[in-house]
Amino acid sequence: MVRYATLLAVALWVGAVAAGLPQVRPATASQAYPLATGARIAGNQKQTRLVVDISQKVDIRAFTLANPYRVIIDMPQVTFQFPAKTGERGRGLVKAFRYGLVMPGGSRIVIDTTGPVRVERAYVLDPVDDLPGRLVLDLTAVDRETFLRAAAIDNRLPRDAPRRADRDAPTATDGDPRPVIVLDPGHGGIDSGTRAASGELEKTIVLEFGLMLRDKLEQTGKYRMVMTRTDDRFVELGERVRLARQRDAQLFISIHCDALRRREGDAEGATVYTLSEHASDAEAARLADAENKADVIAGVDLSHEPNDIADILIDLAQRETKNYSTQFAHVLVGELKATARLHKHPLKAAGFRVLTAPDVPSVLLELGYVSNSDDIKQLTSDDWRSQVSEKIVQAIDAFFTTRLAGSGAKSGSN
Ligand SMILES: [Zn+2]
Question: If you measure from the C-alpha of residue 257 to the centroid of ligand 1, how many angstroms do you get, rounded to a whole number?
């Protein structure tokens, strides 16, 4: 909230300067990032130009990624103030594009292209007189082979990867016997997740929920809490899993909201997912597919992602993790029943990448559907969040009581 207010103040200040109005300099003007205020696309299926208006010159780096075809423009942190829906529809070689923060100090534009392209030119022009600076990207259609050659060269260059969150969290080796729980608010930064018709973003809803749940769990004094993110930043799926393993977590809860498109009908309520190679139904398969795209959306190079969900499951089968995950999912649904509206089939399974830590019991909680008018009211209500997070605390207490009592191999309900 404070940061938003600051950015707004800075934006108003910059706006005032641009309009030649008397300047009222905010106290935090040093926080002002370059402002990107508009974007235009021109061209056809052979050559396409993207132009972004930007308040000052920044260093950029443009490169291509395959599977799917994307062009990435990395730059220092920029405040994007594009008109709503900018990037949703492309033109020429640009199918669509997204923009946002990928790490503190680093912003990115991710362009989905209609096919293989080459970055012909990428540069930024200084502002001149009353004209803003301009970031210009020229793309040319090429064949797949040419594209792959260029992408291979691009990817040999060192690049800052989005970094992990929450480095200050307690480590597993500090002698504290309390179990470590990792809470994982989905999406973040350039990846907004789903969006309600009223504009609320999944990344914001799940972060606010996750922070409240963390506070409530911390208040019990029984657990050491780790978050995969505590602010609006992007974290790779693999990084979330690595963090849980690194901290020797004994429970990992990924928090999300679902959405259905209008023509897909209506659905409501919370659902708890565990990992499975075979999705329990078509809806679960669709959701896992959508959630697994987070890295693609944020412009991450997936060519080095080796492991198939099937391989991970073979590994998992040799451990107790899967039983514990299922057990916790049952306990969680049992507790949530009293307070939250549940989906008509509240326990499901599918191949979620974020649930693949082989030694950490993991569930993915879909709090509800941002596409459902009753659900979105609840998801954004402090009362509802508070009640539901209290139920989750009770489920976690019950899970660990059973587990620590040594009878954890049996399912806690049914
Ligand atoms: Zn999600």
Answer: 6
Query: What phi and psi, each to the nearest 5 degrees, are found at residue 396?
Result: -65, -40
Instruction: Please state which of the ranges 154-158, 292-296, 331-335 shows the lowest mean pLDDT.
Output: 154-158
Distance 22 CA to ligand 1 centre (A): 44
Sign of the dihedral through C-alpha 49, 52, 53, 59: negative
Alpha carbons 119 and 139: distance in angstroms, whole number: 5
Do residues 388 and 212 make contact, with C-beta atoms less than 8 angstroms apart? no
Cα 70 versus chain centre, distance: 18
Asked if 273 and 351 touch (Cβ cutoff 8 Å), the reply is no
| CA 400 – ligand 1 centroid, Å | 26
How far, in Å, from the CA of 122 to the mean position of ligand 1?
Answer: 32
Residue 308: pLDDT above 70? no
Contact 40, 50 (CB under 8 A): yes
Both structure tokens of 249: 């977590």
CA of 56 to the centre of ligand 1 (A): 34
Instruction: Measure 46 CA to ligand 1 centroid, in angstroms.
Output: 35
- Name the CA dihedral angle for 93, 98, 102, 104, rounded to a multiple of 10 degrees: 120
Distance 99 CA to ligand 1 centre (A): 18
Closest listed residue to residue 379, CA positions, set 187, 198, 189, 192? 198
Spatial distance between the Cα atoms of 331 and 334, rounded to a whole number of angstroms: 5
Q: Which ranges of 280-349 would DSSP assign to H, the alpha helix?
A: 282-292, 294-297, 309-317, 321-336
Residue 365 CA, ligand 1 centroid: distance in Å: 9
Provide the pLDDT for residue 115: 95
What pLDDT shows up at residue 66? 86
Q: Are 341 and 374 in contact (CB under 8 A)?
A: yes
Residues 197 and 411: their CA atoms lie apart, in Å, by 39
Find the 254 Cα to ligand 1 centroid distance in Å.
9
